[in-house]
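To: structure desk
From: M.T.
Subject: fold request, one chain
Message: Could you run this one when you get a chance? Sequence is below, nothing fancy, just the single chain.
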Amino acid sequence: MKCRHCEHPLTQSFLDLGSAPPSNAYLRDDALHQAEVWLPLKLMVCDACWLVQTLDFTGRDNLFDAEYAYFSSCSSSWLRHAENFAISMRQELSLNSQSKVVEVAANDGYLLQYFQAAGIPCFGVEPTASTADAARAKGIRIVERFFGKELALELVAQGEAADLAVANNVLAHVPDINDFVAGFAQILKPHGVASFEFPHLVNMVQQNQFDTAYHEHYSYLSLHAVQLIFSSNGLQIYDVQEWPTHGGSLRVLAQRSDVQTRPVSASVAQLLDKEQAIGLTSKDFYQNVQIRAEQAKFGLLEFLLDCKKAGLKVAAYGAAAKGNTLLNFSGVRPDLLPYVVDINPHKQGKYLPGSRIPIVSLAHLLKDRPDRVLILPWNLREEIVLDLMQIREWNARFVVAIPELHIL
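Reply: Done. Structure tokens follow.
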């Protein structure tokens, strides 16, 4: 395989998690009698542009289908983040009723609802029917297609050029990252702004966030790699901000390279220098990721086996894609973890892919009263602990497995 950005041959391994089903391919009852598709889950790093990427074994249509079950509005902290972003962009860009906002990967309308409520014309691009329908139920206009340069040109021809184009947590999800970014250069008005948010590769490496690796994540992004990708496809980064969301993310603000009306913030050079200083553009930076992932795996298994021997009941909270990566890599099954709670009704009554652990409602946990609650979406740990304080009534304890096993 060649690098999905620069086409340099990939020879440097980053992480090998064996094989797993797609992490969002939740199972219905009838699927329990059928075989699942397991695909190799291996990541490589390009030693030319330093883009970390998953080896491809299936197409995007098989990963982002009509029953895609990730709904952004299920997290209250993410909704607050989205609302604050909408407020700040309205002020910074002086958006009004004559402006146009487009979000690519609009999901269930979690962000656009705030622009809509402020009277700013907006629409979303969202290829998964389940989330697109949820956005439409909020009155948000949705183009139900995958985004790229071709669709961007069509939209501009229809008068849909944007003052603000947003892509939150989707840059990692696209197989053709060059075409995707080139689409933003096309859909922006001459003085328009594109905002991208994505988990920062540095945190994945330094904080052992290996469970963010799954087939739906084609790329794992540093500012170094993103700047190379953008400059090759018509965008110039003029600002970058670090945010705590999703375990540590970057928000990159970009403008069209052929216009460049905004000055480039010192934050861009500062973060690039920081990445350079910690060795991100050297092979040594990527050497210990596999070892630390295996240590976390063994720590989780040891904890679950000790609980089993001691007669302690363990439940999990959050049927997240990252949790599926962790459980399948660790070989955890219902004998060690009998169920996982999720507040998303689109997941309840189904089963985790691979492990086939049943997904239940919060009421099930409150009735069962487990001794330990394993938080799978560790990035939402504070939110979940606050929402589930009632487990303290029966002296239960929260547990996280990343970056290492820790009982709270």
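Reply (cont.): DSSP finds 13 helices and 17 strands in the chain. Let me know if you need anything else for the meeting.
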